[in-house]
Amino acid sequence: MLPVIRMSLLFLSGMKIYIKNMVCDRCKMVVDNELKLIGLHPSSVELGEVEIVEDISPGQKIDLARRLQGLGFELLDDKRSRLVEKIKNKLVDLVQNKNGELKVNLSDFLSGELHHEYSYLSNLFSEETGSTIEKYFIAQKIEKVKEWLAYDELSLSEIAFRLNYSSASHLSQQFKKVTGLSPSHFKKIGENRRKPLDSI
Length: 200
Description:
56% of the residues lie in helices and 8% in strands. The protein is built from nine helices and four strands. Strand 2 (42-46) and strand 3 (49-52) form a beta hairpin. Helix 3 crosses helix 5.
């Protein structure tokens, strides 16, 4: 039996819907398809945030919540959860689509993107997730390292450069601290040790 889903605050002005666990372009396609299947027309589908053109009936809201839940997504209905999800999505996008390239430090990047003081974002993230923004960012980078190691197309030095590590040895130390394995040992084991992005 599906848990009761609170729907009252899901849909805000501008018909925005906030969705947890959207971590990749494929997620955006899946969500876009589900919206269209119930007769909705999204004007934009981004990681964690969708804008709908028309009004949504109560029946469509319930149907959408159940459909998304069945696919591993979750509608978010409070500001704190939505902001935490936005932080996660910014970091996932930074690592997955921009190779972790930061022109400013992480705190300035998030403050600029989300229009909040970093101390507020950091405290909120820790309260809501039990972890820190920095640990989450490192975990995302390590999963990207695992992906590149599994493909075996880049050297460890090239991976370190792409993800803004100061050196291959710094990357190797962090990789071992997080996974318990050296990058070379991980390569021998193979891709079965990678985690889905939404479970990090």
